[in-house]
Hints:
The protein contains 22 helices and 23 strands. By secondary structure, it is an alpha+beta fold. Strands 2, 3, 4, 5, 10, 18 and 19 form a seven-stranded mixed beta sheet that branches. It starts with 8 loop residues before the first helix and ends in a 26-residue tail after the last helix.
Amino acid sequence: MADLPRRPPTARRLGIVVVLVMSLMVTLLARLYYVQLVDRHKPVQSAHLLHDGIIVVPAPRGLIVDARGRPLVTNTSAHVITVDRDLLQQRADKGEPVLRRLAALLGRSAVDLSKEITPCSPSVPAPCWTGEPYAPVPVAMNAPIGTVLAISEHREQFPGVAVRAVTLPSYPNGSLAAQILGYTSEITEADKKRDPDLTDSDTIGVSGLEEQYDAVLRGVDGQQIVQLNPQGYTVRMGSSTPAQHGDTLVTSIDLGLQKLAEQSLAQQIRDSRTAGNPATGGAVVILNPNTGRILAVASYPTYDPSLFISGISQSDYEHLTAPSAGTPLLNRAIAGAYAPGSTFKLITSSSLVTHHEINTYDTYQCPGSVTIDGRVKTNFDSEVLGDITLRDALGYSCDTFFYQPAANEYYRDQSRIAHHEKAHEYLQRMAAAYGVGRAPGVDLPAGEQASGSYADRETRMARWKANRAAYCAAARKGYPDVRNPKDRAYYTELARENCTDGWRYRAGDNADMSIGQGETTMSPLQLALAYSALVNGGKIWEPTLGWGVVDAQGKVVRTIAPKVRDRVPVSQKLLDYVKKSLDFSRGWAVSGAFAYMDSKYRNRIGGKTGTAEVFGKQDTSWLATWGPMYRKGGHTRARYVMVGMVEQAGTGATAAGPMLKRIWDGLLGPHPIVPGARPARVLPKVAPQVRISR
């Protein structure tokens, strides 16, 4: 029997598809017949089905208070004017007359107001409303009372317009502690991507403690359920969930000490300018060296964080960021990095003695100048002190005393390298142990704290490799934009040298580092931490500004404790030696005591001055001090460490010295601003922010 021709596979598959499509069409037609003819009431019922929408009720932010419970950031009531676009759209005139009347009250254009309340979409560009389309749109924050009264007294003219009370941050002390408190801002799209739980009605901390502890301060938003018809219009209100007030952040800042520090800093800026110095900025840091808690942070110039409430205006922002403003948003005390000058000799002395390069009892030369790498390096005013011990080298701040052993250390390391051994770089290792070159880890955003720096062979080589092409190009071009011929020649020669030999680390570099110059930089906070180690037995703290978190009922949720990050590899005997060398009771033998000669409490404090040279600018003035001193366990301790710095203000004794003296006067004078001249030791009681239901 002959084989019958087989049906092609393609035709068979096509037949299956046709059957499936016909089945779907029959099912669809049957369903349509049922809905349209059998169940005639179904379309009417579906049209009246409601669905829920959610309107977020923002939570009031928590407070920020000082170490004794006094307010630093509070909340204040403000009136917000909102427009319910749904209601306006349901009117025959689409609410246009209402918007015109409201725009006139607000001093704005009705067209702009209409755009502002229109929900954003691919066809509706900004400005537009980015929130839920059925939610009332805020069109005026912190509205003037006259506008509020006009709307309230003539409600019939403003259907769909409402006035509601909200809480906004308030800074009762103005610009006080602005850089550490930070500020808040409205939510951006980038914020939403990082945290999908954020809503348009939220505010978020964007700097300082407001950012660092945002999750604590923000609280939990509430919600109001609204029932919407299929067209998306509100029909009636549903259930609601109240917002939960944000927690209170208790800081270790002492309000009285903070005020005194800022006042003294501002006065010193004025005094230094009167004396003919630019004094472009400055900072003060006060620490409890025994706990690692920060008690005051002052930075000049400063700003008023209230400018950022409800969004800063373009003109205000341009003013804050203008070159003439002096970068007030920069926290010079923590985020600034400066050559520390002779205050760095604490670290140099620790290294030289610990590694047996000098000792504490022999004498060494303090000539007016020394020559290293063919370059002459001098003392301040080329002063000659002859043969002196480390004690007097620290007290009188002799630079040449430290130059030679630092250079000798370099030569020994070069000899090791020549024998294929690794350089010891003792000075760099000691600087790292004291915290130079890494962020202090304070509880502020990472971008708001400087790491400081120092030069060594490895980093010098890495930088040269990364920038050699730029150095060589600058050397060829010659800096034509620099007007001053002397500066232009200096920059060109420096670029030429960096092009060919920028990888070299020289003996002169080590000598410069020994007195806190060259590429050595520290923030005032880093220096305060180093001097805290001097008086607390060698502990390098990871400092904190936050002390505790208290909920809205006044209950302590948690405490925030500083951690000991490291211990300097320096003997207690040497630390005691350095403290005694810099005790202000030695009088004129300690340069920092210059401003304190007539003080009754001079015997209770010690300190080290620093005068850092900056190319093209006047000297940076430094003073690191500690006190009041007391005995514990056979060693001298101190309750406070205080560091002051003034840019372009001259020597440490003539600017930072009197600046810190005014603060010490307030602490140790007849009417101390801090009870008993002791930092607060227990968390304060914080009043509840909400009523506790019983």
